[in-house]
Design goal:
By secondary structure, the protein is an alpha+beta fold. It has 4 domains: 2-151, no CATH class; 159-236, no CATH class; 274-320, Roll (SH3 type barrels), CATH 2.30.30; 328-410, Alpha-Beta Plaits. The chain is 58% helix and 13% strand. The chain has helices at residues 2-22, 26-51, 54-57, 63-74, 76-95, 102-121, 127-146, 149-158, 170-199, 206-231, 240-252, 255-270, 310-315, 342-354, 393-410, and strands spanning 160-163, 166-169, 278-281, 284-291, 295-299, 305-309, 318-320, 328-336, 366-372, 377-385. The strands form 3 sheets. A 5-stranded antiparallel beta sheet has the order 6-5-4-3-7. Strands 8-10-9 form a 3-stranded antiparallel beta sheet, with helices on one face. A two-stranded antiparallel ribbon has the order 1-2. The longest helix has 30 residues, at 170-199. It is elongated and about 135 Å long. The termini are far apart. The mean pLDDT is 77.
Length: 439
């Protein structure tokens, strides 16, 4: 309660000083000069933006320098206003007492703090974090300029509750929130930078790059959270009850989430699948795009993106078409009529598919006779490709088209079932009369 009284007393003193100054002519003069500077600053900034395309001028600059320059341009009206206010204050101090330009000095300090914070906060690309950091930092600067920082801090610290051995005040909550936002942003930015650097090392496989990136991100975020909690004076041992509740929740309600997380780490460690692999899981066929903490993104040939839980890759049967290498053997069965020469068919089939661009010359295509069926001589044509990511069905289609064209040119028939149905006349049975009953 004493801290709240101090706040009210400080506000009352400030209001008394303002009321004492309002009775003089200098307060309206200062307010009028501030309004004049604001109008002139806004007008000159609008005129400069129409005459000069300052955004286009910064297109070739480095990213962070470009962001700072664009923040400077967006606050150009306030900057011009600050310059005009400084000139007005200098003239007033030269003409009269310095105390009669007090409000202009306050306006200069507040506007300068806003511009400096806006330019620094522009380096934060996350818009939400940018806004929060800007508002909190400017509020802190405004309270410090007005001399209200210490009373407000004491009042916020006085409004507190105690849970177990942990004292939670409004000041602690605000401080922790602000520090968490800042440190988490720094941790995320540093993790993104390190992941980019890891992707530039060709000696590391894609799965190892992803695994190291995830571990670095988790470690940085955990370090940021622990560092903030320790810096604001929170005893981590007081969170033992909370951590026990979290562990119980994981044991009962978050089994799948934890299972997918652990499965994702296993997949990255054993390199059974990696970004770029062509895989089949159940009815899903495509190539691995990204591997997340909970799911893996598999993009199909038709553009659909399957988000498959990591647990499925550990517990289900997975076909990896490019696990050890990109070469894949495809088998295309076909049949010809019994009137065809099987030796000629075999040579013609190999010759037809050898001309296709995606079919490898080494290993070369082979054709085997596999069966004398009821209506056809069955063959199996085996080819090798090294780009399964370009599709498997389309190369099968190309092979069948090549066989069709080659067989048509050579007069080889592709059989179809022929069935002969014989209809026999119905058989007649002799009539039998019932025997007479015995007397």
């Amino acid at each position: 309660m004493d801290d709240l009284k101090d706040i009210f007393e400080a506000l009352a003193i400030a209001w008394a000083a303002v009321a004492a100054q309002i009775s003089t002519i200098w307060i309206p003069i200062q307010l009028g000069l501030i309004a004049l500077a604001v109008l002139l600053g806004w007008g000159l900034a609008a005129l400069l933006r129409r005459r000069l395309d300052l955004v286009a001028m910064t297109m070739g600059w480095p990213v962070y320098l470009r962001l700072a320059a664009r923040a400077f341009i967006s606050n150009l009206g306030i900057i011009i206003c600050i310059v005009l206010l400084v000139a007005e204050r200098a003239l007033m101090q030269a003409a009269t007492w310095p105390s009669r330009s007090y409000f202009i000095g306050v306006a200069i300090s507040l506007a300068t703090a806003w511009v400096a914070i806006a330019i620094l906060a522009s380096l934060i690309r996350n818009q939400f974090v940018n806004r929060v950091v800007s508002i909190v930092a400017w509020s802190f600067a405004a309270l410090s300029i007005l001399g209200l920082l210490e009373p407000v801090r004491s009042g916020l610290d006085q409004a507190a509750i105690t849970i177990g051995g942990l004292r939670i005040s409004a000041l602690l909550v605000l401080k922790t929130t602000a520090l968490l936002l800042l440190t988490l942003w720094l941790a995320t930015a540093l993790a993104n930078f390190l992941e980019t650097r890891l992707r530039s090392y060709a000696d590391l496989t894609p799965s190892i790059q992803v695994l190291l990136g995830k571990l670095i991100r988790i470690a940085l975020i955990a370090f940021a959270v622990l560092a903030v909690l320790s810096s604001v004076g929170i005893d981590l041992s007081a969170l033992a009850l909370f951590s026990g509740a979290v562990g119980l929740g994981i044991g009962f309600g978050l089994q799948k989430i934890v299972s997918n997380l652990v499965s994702g780490i296993i997949l990255l460690a054993d390199k059974s699948i990696k970004p770029g692999d062509v895989i089949t899981v159940g009815d899903s066929f495509g190539w691995v795009d990204t591997m997340g903490a909970r799911y893996t993104s598999v993009v199909s040939r038709d553009g659909r993106e399957f988000l498959i839980p990591n647990e499925d890759f550990v517990t289900q049967r997975v076909i990896n078409w490019s696990y050890s290498h990109n070469r894949v053997r495809l088998e295309v069965p076909f049949g010809v009529s019994y009137g065809s020469d099987p030796h000629r068919v075999q040579a013609l089939a190999v010759e037809a598919v050898a001309a296709l661009p995606r079919v490898l010359r080494d290993p070369k295509p082979v054709c085997h006779l596999v069966k004398f069926a009821d209506f056809s001589i069955d063959f199996s044509l085996r080819i090798w490709i090294e780009d399964p990511i370009e599709g498997v069905t389309n190369i099968r289609s190309g092979v069948l088209f090549a066989l069709w064209d080659a067989f048509k040119r050579d007069g080889i028939e592709i059989p179809y079932p022929v069935r002969e149905i014989r209809v026999t006349p119905p058989s007649t049975l002799p009539e039998t009369r019932p025997s007479a009953p015995a007397p």
